[in-house]
């Protein structure tokens, strides 16, 4: 297979608002506020992932703007007998561009397997939708989100094995010419929704493992894949993360619920990566 031509990876900021702003009026108001806070021509790709019931309304607000949007999950098939699931056909019809897959809540609470996530990744790519593939440790660490390697000298090796396996399984049999559409989100469960993010040195180490794993699997073509960090992200810690780790951006949760804070994060990423 021919080597894919390298392109400069565009920095990206993703806002997953989970099950917040669930009322149509709230979702529309938030999307309007986000647009009002945006800079004229930012060089960062910004993606909003609304709560599932508000995607259509948010999509209408964002029409013609610089912001992309997507879904927080989708079914592993495009249509059929899967009551209560969300079809990728609906997302495409609304002109969505992204879908988040493999979030730790989906893995732990809904027992989603690597095999299921791989099916979803392939389906998303078949519909020209960019999958945001979440990987990371599920197990809780200590209260300060600090890895004590003295207590667990095997931690680094265990981390390497876990992240490599997640990447291998999620991207199994993915065509190399599709790699540039993929975003890998390092989202360790023990740092999501907490009072502080994982430490910048730990993020740097984990991202290096992810980059090395991608290179081992795809060679130079892996340079096309964007990698972001998610887990208690704020404008303040984004700078430290990007200074130390080979990240293309960040994935925000609740701290992005304030449009001004979201814009501040976008500006930090733009200043450092553009």
Automatic annotation (TrEMBL):
UniProt cross-references to SUPFAM superfamilies, sorted A to Z: Triosephosphate isomerase (TIM)
GO molecular function, one term: triose-phosphate isomerase activity
Biological processes annotated in GO: gluconeogenesis; glycolytic process
Keyword Cytoplasm in record: yes
GO CC terms of this entry: cytoplasm
Pfam families: TIM
InterPro entries found in the cross-reference section: Aldolase_TIM, TIM_sf, Triosephosphate_isomerase
Subcellular location, record wording: Cytoplasm
Keywords: Cytoplasm, Gluconeogenesis, Glycolysis, Isomerase
Its EC number(s): 5.3.1.1
Record's keyword annotation contains Isomerase: yes
Catalytic reaction equation(s): D-glyceraldehyde 3-phosphate = dihydroxyacetone phosphate
Pathway: Carbohydrate biosynthesis; gluconeogenesis; Carbohydrate degradation; glycolysis; D-glyceraldehyde 3-phosphate from glycerone phosphate: step 1/1
Enzyme class: isomerase
Subunit structure: Homodimer.
Sequence similarity: Belongs to the triosephosphate isomerase family.
Protein known as: Triosephosphate isomerase
Organism: Enterococcus faecalis TX0630
């Amino acid at each position: 297979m021919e080597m894919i031509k390298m392109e400069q990876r565009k920095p990206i900021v993703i806002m997953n608002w989970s099950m917040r702003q669930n009322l149509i009026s709230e979702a529309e108001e938030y999307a309007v506020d986000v647009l009002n806070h945006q800079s004229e021509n930012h060089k960062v790709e910004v993606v909003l992932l609304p709560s599932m019931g508000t995607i259509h309304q948010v999509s209408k607000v964002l029409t013609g703007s610089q912001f992309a949007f997507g879904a927080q999950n989708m079914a592993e098939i495009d249509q059929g007998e899967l009551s209560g699931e969300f079809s990728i056909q609906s997302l495409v019809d609304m002109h969505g561009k992204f879908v988040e897959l493999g979030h730790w809540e989906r893995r732990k609470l809904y027992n989603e397997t690597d095999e299921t996530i791989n099916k979803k990744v392939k389906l998303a790519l078949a519909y020209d939708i960019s999958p945001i593939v979440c990987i990371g440790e599920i197990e809780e660490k200590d209260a300060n989100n600090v890895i004590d390697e003295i207590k667990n000298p095997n931690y680094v090796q265990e981390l390497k094995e876990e992240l490599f396996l997640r990447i291998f399984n999620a991207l199994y049999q993915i065509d190399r010419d599709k790699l540039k559409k993929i975003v890998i989100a390092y989202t360790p469960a023990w740092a999501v929704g907490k009072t502080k993010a994982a430490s910048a040195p730990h993020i740097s180490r984990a991202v290096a493992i992810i980059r090395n794993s991608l290179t081992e699997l795809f060679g130079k073509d892996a340079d096309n894949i964007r990698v972001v960090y998610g887990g208690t992200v704020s404008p303040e810690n984004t700078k430290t993360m990007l200074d130390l780790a080979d990240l293309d951006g960040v994935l925000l949760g609740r701290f992005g619920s304030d449009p001004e804070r979201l814009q501040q994060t976008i500006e930090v990423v733009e200043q450092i990566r553009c």
